[in-house]
Write a structure and sequence with these properties.
This protein is α+β, with helices and mostly antiparallel strands. It has helices at about 5-20, 40-55, 60-75, 80-85, 90-110, 130-150, 160-170, 170-175, 215-220, 235-245, and strands spanning about 120, 125, 190, 200, 210-215, 235.
Amino acid sequence: MIEEAQDFLQESNALHDLLAPVAEARYAEPTQFKNWTIDNVLQHLHFFNLAAICSLKEPARFTEMYDSLKRKRGEGLSTVDATDELLEGVRGRALLRLWREGFLQTAAEFSQADPRQRVRWAGPDMSARSSISARLMETWSHGQEIYDLLGVVRQNTDHIRSIAVIGINTYEWTFRNRGEEAPEPKPHVVLKSPSGAIWTWNEPSQEHRIEGLAEEFCQVVTQVRGISDTQLSVKGDPAMKWMAIAQCFAGPVESPPQPGTRGPKVRQ
């Protein structure tokens, strides 16, 4: 059984519970992430949850889905508009129900998968464990713009450890993606988990070190907060360079949000 599938399910259920009582009209409101609406976020999550299932169970179907998305992008559509067309414009509560059905199936399929099974994706193939961890990371990170829009402070649990691990593992890739060489040494990372446990990575160092709350580290590496909007302690040139551009997700280079541009709105 893949533990991360239960973490993904927990995070998805928390986001669903947040949205369940929200008036349907608010699903069309823009968030602080590229003006994506709640509908846009749910469409994006649902499409790639289905893609993940196909990569695990029907690789040819995954290729077909992803090729359809690329073809629509090639026709000049944005990712948001392309996904909207591929999902036939479903929105609002109908979309909420569809997304829930999809994430329940995703969690169930990956729970029983061989963690080492190789699956296809947009970039290099990955293990099934890495695939569902990526779905957790994306659900958590895109969920943040919804929490912010609704003015709700998220209550995290230790299931975010998988997201922190993705952040740690993409240290070199963050720089390589920008055509740069990753500086050495890798910073010693010391994070306090939501439960109070201490998580550490890399060789101990007082000079090259990142320390603080695990949720804030996860916010920085997923680019839902800029480093200046957190209380993380960052010491040493490699650590400072990393935290200024950290990007744990695949794809072209993206820049972290500008100071003060991402955060919870006043709850309405």
